[in-house]
Write a structure and sequence with these properties.
Layout lengths: L6 E3 L5 E3 L10 E6 L2 E2 L6 E3 L5 E3 L14 E9 L2 E4 L3 E5 L12 E4 L3 E5 L9 E6 L2 E2 L7 E4 L3 E5 L7 E9 L2 E4 L3 E6 L7 E7 L4 E4 L4 E3 L2 E5 L3 E6 L10 E4 L3 E4 L8 E8 L6 E18 L4 E4 L4 E4 L1 E5 L3 E6 L2 E2 L6 E4 L4 E4 L8 E9 L2 E12 L12 E6 L2 E5 L5 H6 L2 E8 L8 E5 L5 E4 L7 E10 L2 E2 L6 E4 L10 E7 L2 E6 L10 E8 L6 E7 L4 E4 L7 E10 L2 E2 L3 E6 L25 H33 L31 H24 L2
Parallel strand pairs: 1-9, 10-18, 20-27, 28-36
Antiparallel strand pairs: 2-6, 3-4, 3-7, 5-6, 7-8, 7-9, 11-15, 12-13, 12-16, 14-15, 16-17, 16-18, 19-22, 21-25, 23-26, 24-25, 26-27, 27-30, 29-34, 31-32, 31-35, 33-34, 35-36, 37-38, 38-41, 39-40, 39-42, 42-43, 42-44, 45-46, 46-49, 47-48, 47-50, 50-51, 50-52
Helix pairs in contact: 2-3
């Protein structure tokens, strides 16, 4: 493929762009401009050899587009399509000067410098005139730099005059404003420190071009100009030349010439000097270190193409398949910064010409390879009659026709390919289906979601072509329960806020209800549209506890309800998230919840103590009634008694126990009553 090159066209002149292709005939060559196919017209023709011919190159005018732009050609035969690089076509032009030379006065023997700048397409050739007469190029005191700079060293009275520059290119010729050079005398013996009148500017060029770094210095005595690199490396001698008294020219630059260059103006015989810096950046267009190779692979197999390129700056790689940008998909993977292209589960649809395009700011390069798919006659045919129907909000059913018996015997199974419409191919899901099935249910799908599906049959030799693709949408389900919280606005109003659902089965609206606890009946529901996510309930009873209920609904029904409890304070306003808890704010003189809890604990402890005391007293009484001698019992008055009481004898002290217990019980109850009474006194 002979690709078109960048070109600068002249208005109303013919233009030809080459596109020569070699390959198996027939080959069809087409052209595109800015990515759009060029329509046929009498003014634009594609010649038999593929060359694009424009009879008269036109600038933009009413009713037609300009011919400037990016052109590329595409060549196609039965094996695929190959696309050329983009050729940039510009119109030759020469606008007005944007920098004119300035008048100046220079001491005799000093240095004069004039500059003019103009942006021409192509770059204009600049010459200089003094008093409308071209300057002599044989005088080595005059240095003309290609950037539109004129340097005059060791000026004389004869150099005085009117200077101007003349710019010429195929489009036009223009002259700049005039500048006067005045020469003053009598100052040649005055000492002047060295100074750099103009130092090097930052410059970016491409390899093999010529770099010129300016450096012109003044002073008395005349300073000596020298060059060095900031990194200390040697500048070298090959291709290095000094223009005039100090300008550095590097011919045929390479990447090694990139760096920061230092211009130094030195006073002779001393260490006094002035310096100026300029950065030179050398770029290199992409070059391939490894390019893709054409391969032939069986259907169902895999293929890998490698493409490695170098350049400055680092090239960016893209891949084309038959002239179209190739993106990662279900069987296409790009790795290693796009330097490796892997194709899996190859089918006849993957047979194409693949191009690796390497691009950077210095240029483009491309390499191509062909993938041939070897199809076996024994591969099964694509499944026929493939359809999909809706079963439920979460399920689809697919069916397809049963192939003939001789074909069925060679099939080992089917694979279903399914993905959501709009998702990238890499998110595709696959599901295996047994060979004896011609109907399959797909479950666990998302509600109200559209899916794209196709089917392939597999034999031991590989996969069939895919069936035609069908699209099906699951039924919508009820919305998910809304998540909400409440905020107390004041003593009689609560604001309810909730999140709007973002998934399938979206809500068509919301229903908000509330009730005062412990009442059973809810007030409402309050109907709210689907775009509203907040509502304020007012006219509520101050200090009461309410239960708030929220449900989302659509045409399929209501969601499960979400409930929250919220307590309204009698005074003051407090924001609170609801979750069944509430806050209580009390006035001075009212019992606090903490006090009630403490009182209950004290009373409970006292009651337990009394119960234990009663049980202990009852036990002692029982022992005495059985004649058991207790250490605290008082013996009978009968002095003749020397042993235990006889059976049936009474215990005098034992009779007093119930009285003591009863007295203790009533004393404890009285004590609790006094504590609670004292606690609740205002």
């Amino acid at each position: 493929l002979l690709e078109p090159s960048d070109v600068i066209a002249v208005r109303d002149q013919p233009l030809m762009l080459d596109c020569w292709v070699q390959g198996e005939e027939p080959i069809m060559v087409t052209w595109r401009k800015n990515g759009v196919p060029l329509p046929p017209s009498p003014r634009v023709q594609v010649l038999a050899n593929g060359t694009l011919f424009l009879q008269s190159f036109q600038k933009r005018r009413e009713g037609s587009e300009a011919d400037m732009g990016e052109y590329d050609c595409a060549a196609q035969n039965r094996y695929g399509m190959l696309v050329s690089r983009k050729a940039r076509v510009l119109l030759a032009s020469l606008p007005k000067f944007h920098t004119h030379p300035l008048s100046m006065s220079v001491d005799e023997g000093g240095v004069a410098r004039f500059q003019c700048q103009i942006n021409g397409v192509p770059e204009a050739n600049i010459t200089w005139e003094r008093d409308r007469v071209p300057l002599s190029t044989t005088d080595n005191r005059y240095t003309l730099l290609p950037m539109g700079i004129l340097q005059v060293t060791g000026v004389r009275q004869a150099d005085a005059g009117v200077f101007r520059c003349v710019a010429t290119n195929p489009a036009n010729t223009r002259s700049s404003h005039e500048a006067v050079l005045n020469i003053t005398d009598g100052a040649s013996r005055i000492y002047k420190e060295p100074a750099i009148l103009s130092g090097p500017q930052n410059l970016t060029i491409t390899v093999h071009q010529t770099a010129i770094l300016e450096c012109i210095a003044t002073g008395n005595p005349r300073p000596i100009v020298s060059w060095s690199r900031l990194d200390g490396r040697s500048i070298g001698v090959e291709g290095i030349q000094v223009l005039g008294t100090g300008n550095l020219m590097i011919s045929d630059v390479s990447l090694q010439h990139s760096g920061v260059y230092v211009c130094a103006a030195n006073r002779p015989g001393t260490r006094m000097r002035r310096t100026a810096l300029g950065r030179l950046v050398v770029q290199a267009p992409p070059e391939f270190l490894q390019w893709p190779q054409s391969v032939s692979k069986p259907a169902g197999g895999s293929a890998v193409f490698s493409c490695v390129a170098q350049g400055v700056p680092e090239p960016h790689l893209i891949w084309l398949k038959n002239g179209k940008v190739l993106m990662p998909g279900h069987n296409v993977k790009l790795t290693n910064n796009n330097s490796t292209l892997a194709l899996t589960r190859i089918s006849s649809e993957d047979e194409a010409i693949y191009q690796c395009i390497a691009e950077n700011s210095a240029g483009t390069n491309q390499a191509s390879a062909r993938l041939a798919v070897a199809l076996s006659k024994d591969l099964p045919a694509a499944p026929q009659g493939f359809t999909a129907s809706v079963l439920s909000p979460n399920a689809l059913q697919i069916t397809w026709s049963q192939p003939p018996a001789d074909v069925t015997d060679s099939i080992i199974g089917y694979v279903l390919h399914i993905r959501k419409t709009g998702e990238v191919d890499s998110l595709e899901l696959q599901e295996a289906i047994s060979k004896g099935s011609f109907q399959h249910d797909i479950t666990n799908l998302e509600v109200a979601t559209t899916y794209s599906l196709y089917l392939k049959a597999y034999s031991p030799l590989g996969a069939s072509q895919q069936s035609h693709t069908v699209v099906a949408t699951t039924l919508g389900g009820v919305p998910t329960p809304p998540t909400f919280f409440t905020k107390v606005v004041n003593s009689s109003a609560v604001q309810v806020l909730w999140e709007l659902p973002s998934k399938a089965g979206k809500a068509e609206g919301f229903r908000l209800s509330y009730r005062k606890v412990p009442h059973a009946d809810f007030q409402g529901p309050i109907q709210l549209p689907c775009h509203i996510n907040a509502h304020t309930i007012s006219n509520m009873e101050s200090g009461a506890v309410y239960e708030v209920k929220l449900v989302a609904y659509n045409g399929n029904g209501e969601s499960d309800c979400s409930k929250r409890l919220v307590s309204l304070a009698e005074e003051g306003v407090s924001d609170q998230s609801t979750g069944g808890d509430s806050l209580c704010q009390c006035r001075d003189g009212e019992a606090s919840l903490g006090g009630i809890v403490i009182g209950i604990h004290i009373g409970t402890a006292c009651i337990i103590f009394c119960v234990l005391f009663l049980m202990f007293g009852y036990r002692r009484s029982l022992f005495c009634s059985k004649g058991t001698q207790d250490s605290w019992s008082v013996p009978r008055d009968d002095a003749r008694h020397t042993g235990n009481p006889k059976d049936g004898a009474n215990c005098p002290r034992g009779k007093a126990v119930p009285q003591v217990v009863t007295l203790s019980f009533y004393s404890t109850i009285s004590f609790i009553t006094v504590l609670l009474h004292l606690h609740y006194l205002p």
